[in-house]
Write a structure and sequence with these properties.
With 710 residues, this protein is an alpha+beta fold. The strands form five sheets. A seven-stranded mixed beta sheet has the order 3-2-1-4-7-6-5. A hairpin with a 6-residue loop joins strand 8 and strand 9. The longest helix has 26 residues. The protein is globular, with a radius of gyration of 27 Å.
Length: 710
């Protein structure tokens, strides 16, 4: 039992923390409710309009003393303009506050008292009722690790006091984030959906002021699935993740009878059950069924085999830092783009004065857009219906092996091969990446402009480059043989190398923007923060970094799974931008479901990969200039060098001061920087490439998602 002194010390520590601001969207709502413009608020805070915008879209946070002033203002507005459905003033005696949703992977010690929470049938902002003790022998969480030091938690949305999701077990225990356990009385899927929306207190606020709140996620264990009338496994001749319950299954009939609907994906491993929204309130619940392989082992290593409480903690960290999962990590990566750049916003009709839905600048809009023929795939209707024979854009990741004839005697005598793997190289390439937002226009003999995103037909075969390096203009590193389609970054790099570029024709986009910026920023922060929780921080020296990376996955397998999911979200999201048709019954020239999405944008995918490949070549060239070293092979974001020792410290360039040389490969946890990678898998990839096979399709965890998505 804690002493009074210990309890008061803990409370004092909380009081000394910096004030917690409401979520960015709520800051904007309060300001608009008060009728104050961003310019007027900026004047009051002695700041700039852009800074206020950053506060309201989550790009930055105020510092003292502006933080306290802003907090005081928001508190005053909150008292005057409460959120929709919330009382204007709290009752004198309030129920105990729910536990905040942590933004780090932390949890109570195994010896903590086991409690259960039964949420009341409450209004829009439910308060946390008292929690009776659970029966003996039934812990609230199965974690056996000691409690870790908790970071400052973000402000909890009062509408969703128990976080974004819960894992439901067969005994009715729903494990939410923060060690909370809810009692779920549902015995059917319909009852589960209604309990989730009316009583659970689950969900997450929108990531952009013009977006939508995240639907609550309920993850079902095998026992819970059976209890609700679902089969424990989905069996069939196809992969389970592509299977669905038949339309005449009793559970599907129950859902339809209760006037609920399923999306076109049907009732599969990721089932979304919804009704038409009533006003601003969405009525939708996302289900994920563990025993139906909802959590792919490649993206969520080991998670499906964890205890329910630990699954909730892993998914909770991901949901807090990235997005509430809505399907595979590839699907979540694409959904995150839309959540951060909603296609529409409320605009005022000048003729009627009414507020209507209008285009949100910087987004991809609501309607899908046909690609230029060279940006499409051979089976795309644009290609088949037009009879296009002019070739296609071939911007892919590197798969290159150096010709043995170019190896020197000195290189052959070096005893080791060391692999350097760039941290989320494709995420780094998305930073400040300008892409097209409008439809492509066709031009003949245009003057090349490196600031205009698009596809250019140009002949780069005349450019002479060092044969010990891969060509930056082709994925296999070979020299171009004639005119070919290239993305803007590829031609811009040819100019950077000092060569004239004279395009023959081009498909260019007039409206442009850094569409992926917020996507990059959120995923970068999630990646860096998760690595920091595992002891890999930015302030480590290179020697300390290598030591920390050697055992970081063993230190906390659960956080290692979160890290793997973040990386899969990046690659899968990029791959989904050019999702190919799936299924053996597809006929060439027919549209497939992915084409109906505004986010089916192969040109954006090509821009990301082109920039990543160019970035890789620039580092390879700088390494050769600084050290005289040339790579043995490059596969996607991994490069292998001959080395006198087993560590990259044996060959990376350092200044006399001991600091890494800029421009070459550098070690570190930030996206785009390198880490040590074992070469066994890389050498296997080299062997596959020499046999004419694609390593990405044969190596577990490879970059196949960049080819087609999931």
């Amino acid at each position: 039992m804690a002493s009074e002194e210990e309890l008061f010390a803990n409370i004092d520590a909380l009081l000394e923390e910096e004030p917690q601001l409401p979520p960015p969207a709520e800051r904007a709502r309060l300001r608009e409710a008060a009728g104050i413009t961003q310019a007027r608020l900026a004047t009051a805070l002695k700041s700039t309009v852009q800074t206020v915008k950053n506060y309201e879209n989550g790009r930055s946070e105020p510092k003292s003393p502006r933080l306290e002033a802003y907090q005081r203002l928001l508190n005053g507005w909150a008292a005057k303009y409460p959120a929709h459905g919330a009382p204007a003033a709290p009752a004198p005696v309030a129920a105990p506050q729910p536990a905040p949703v942590p933004d780090t992977f932390t949890g109570p010690a195994a010896s903590a008292p086991a409690n259960t929470t039964t949420p009341a049938q409450a209004p829009a902002a439910p308060a946390a009722p008292e929690r009776p003790a659970r029966p003996a022998g039934r812990p609230a969480t199965s974690s056996r690790r000691p409690a870790a030091k908790k970071a400052a938690a973000p402000a909890t949305d009062p509408r969703f006091p128990y976080g974004p999701l819960a894992v439901l077990d067969g005994d009715g225990s729903a494990y939410a984030v923060g060690g909370i356990v809810l009692d779920c009385p549902a015995t059917t899927v319909v009852e589960l959906v209604e309990w989730t929306l009316r009583e659970s207190g689950l969900g997450a606020p929108k990531l952009n002021r013009y977006g939508k709140d995240s639907d609550p996620l309920i993850v079902l264990t095998a026992a819970a699935a059976v209890k609700l009338g679902l089969p424990e496994r989905l069996e069939g001749h196809e992969q389970r993740r592509s299977l669905r319950l038949p339309e005449d299954h009793p559970v599907v009939k129950q859902v339809a009878k209760a006037k609920w609907q399923l999306t076109q994906r049907g009732f599969g491993p990721w089932a979304r059950i919804y009704r038409k929204a009533q006003g601003r309130d969405r009525q939708c619940v996302q289900l994920a069924i563990l025993s139906w392989d909802a959590l792919d082992e490649r993206s969520w290593p080991g998670v499906a085999e964890m205890e329910p409480a630990d699954i909730a903690r892993v998914l909770g960290v991901y949901a807090t830092r990235v997005i509430t999962p809505r399907g595979s990590t590839a699907v979540s990566g694409l959904e995150l783009m839309t959540a951060l750049r909603p296609p529409t916003k409320a605009v005022q009709d000048p003729t009627t004065g009414n507020w209507v839905s209008g285009y949100n600048p910087g987004s991809l809009g609501m309607e899908p857009m046909d690609p230029a023929p060279p940006e499409a795939t051979p089976e795309h209707p644009v290609v088949v219906n037009s009879g296009w024979t002019g070739g296609f854009l071939n911007e892919e990741a590197y798969q290159w092996v150096r010709d043995v004839d170019t190896l020197s005697d000195e290189e052959c005598t070096l005893p080791y091969a060391v692999g350097l793997d760039l941290n989320t190289a494709f995420l780094a390439a998305a930073a400040r990446l300008v892409v097209g937002l409008s439809a492509p226009d066709h031009f003949h003999a245009p003057t090349f402009n490196p600031k205009i995103p698009g596809s250019w037909l140009a002949d780069l075969s005349h450019i002479e480059l060092d044969p010990r390096l891969p060509s930056p203009f082709t994925p296999d590193g070979s020299r171009p043989t004639g005119p070919a389609w290239h993305q803007t970054h590829t031609l811009a790099y040819a100019q950077e190398l000092g060569h004239d570029v004279h395009p023959i024709e081009a498909y260019l986009r007039r409206e442009t923007g850094a569409y992926l910026d917020p996507w990059h920023d959120r995923l970068k922060n999630a990646y860096v923060d998760t690595l920091a929780d595992m002891g890999v921080t930015r302030d480590l020296s290179d020697t300390e970094f290598l030591a920390a990376m050697e055992h970081h996955k063993e230190k906390d397998p659960a956080l290692a799974a979160v890290l793997a999911a973040i990386k899969a979200t990046v690659k899968g999201g990029v791959g989904k931008l050019r999702e190919r048709p799936q299924g053996k019954h597809y006929k060439e020239g027919e549209p497939w479901p992915a084409l109906a999405r505004p986010t089916w944008r192969p040109d954006i995918r090509a821009a990301v990969i082109s920039k990543a490949r160019v970035n890789m070549h620039r580092k390879l060239r700088n390494m050769a200039d600084m050290t005289g070293l040339y790579p043995l092979a490059v596969l996607s974001d991994c490069v292998v060098y001959p080395s006198p020792g087993t560590s990259p410290l044996d060959f990376l360039p350092y200044a006399a001061s001991g600091k890494p040389q800029p421009g070459a490969f550098r070690l570190g946890p930030t996206p785009g920087l390198a880490k040590l990678e074992g070469v066994q898998q890389m050498l296997w990839a080299v062997d596959l490439m020499e046999k004419g096979l694609n390593p990405a399709r044969h190596i577990k965890g490879g970059d196949a998602v960049l080819d087609e998505g999931e």
